[in-house]
Structure prediction request, 336 residues.
Amino acid sequence: MKILITGTAGFIGSHLSRKLLNNGYSVVGIDNVNNYYSVDLKKDRLKILLESKIKNYEIDLEDHNALMSVFEKENPDVVINLAAQAGVRYSLENPHAYITSNVNGFTSILEGCRHYGVNNLIYASSSSVYGANTTKPFSTSDNIDHPLSLYAATKKANELMAHTYSHLYNLPTTGLRFFTVYGPWGRPDMALFKFTKSIVNNEHIDVYNHGNMMRDFTYVDDIVEAITRLVDKPAESNSDWSGANPDPSSSKAPYKVYNIGNNSPVRLMEFIEAIENKLGKTAKKNFMNLQPGDVPETYANVDDLYNTIDFKPETKIQDGVNNFIDWYLEYYDIKL
Ligand SMILES: NC(=O)c1ccc[n+]([C@@H]2O[C@H](COP(=O)([O-])OP(=O)(O)OC[C@H]3O[C@@H](n4cnc5c(N)ncnc54)[C@H](O)[C@@H]3O)[C@@H](O)[C@H]2O)c1
Prediction:
């Protein structure tokens, strides 16, 4: 089976590619290695994959012709679309980047899947689609009509676009709403990386909403395990689905969305303590207001995921944070 993964130089994409290569799949990658954050970090992630014989194309998703030639040449059975402009806060600064990668780019992915007979499209959505919802835990059966950032709106748009292709062309599509993913090789724009770096350098960390935040932090290996189990489980039509009472998580068409979260939210202050414990240092804290676009709490209901793949994320926060910091200190050659 040949799998096309986009976002191979990215945090989650590099972990996933490594695992699928190790499991014996033939993996082809796409990543434009853009400079949203450190290009060196992306290249180092790719370097490891290239040693494992991945074939990688450095193209933009939104370059429709280039993308179609990859589909034509490689003819993948499964496509896993992780490439996107990520980040909630940056979507206030550079909204167009989100439309270009996440909406235009995703349209080309759908077209490629349609024209080249892909039998399973899996794509990254996000917990941010729950936006202004306050009923916890968040369920894929909830209405998600109130996004709080353009990033979230593009992820919801992806789900809607996927549904139309599932309906019109019988393309099995599975959307995965990831909840704050963390772990080794993590993203420099995310809290764990920023906090660790600042604490190591004796600099202040910005603690948003005065520390009154909860996140359902999900360890990257758990995300990768869940995606791996979905590779040979394409979405199927739900025969019980009714347009009179439409369940948002499935359809008469082969369409499905899942939450992938730890189902166990952690207080932001507890998260910072886990970093302090591992580093043996106390953080200097700048308490600040909630940032525009941010939500105070995320919490995933993962019953549906568990019923389908017999697995749910369970890594304890201190274990995951320890693994990240071990990687960080080794990668940047830091002695404490
Ligand atoms: N990390 C998280 O906590 C989290 C949470 C929810 C959803 N997600 C989603 O999961 C996916 C992977 O996230 P990540 O944390 O690995 O992000 P990442 O930024 O590390 O990886 C994305 C990769 O895609 C590439 N890319 C971006 N736009 C592209 C384009 N137009 N064409 C080709 N390549 C492009 C980037 O160079 C990058 O290497 C993204 O879709 C993201 O929105 C991540």
